[in-house]
Amino acid sequence: MTTESKTPILENRASESLLIRIRVRKEDSAYVYAILEAQDGIVAYSTLDYRPGDHHRDLELIVPLGFTREVNDLLEVLQTELGGELYVLSTFETSSSSRTE
Question: What domains can you pick out in the chain, each with its CATH number?
Answer without folding.
Answer: 16-95 (3.30.70.240)
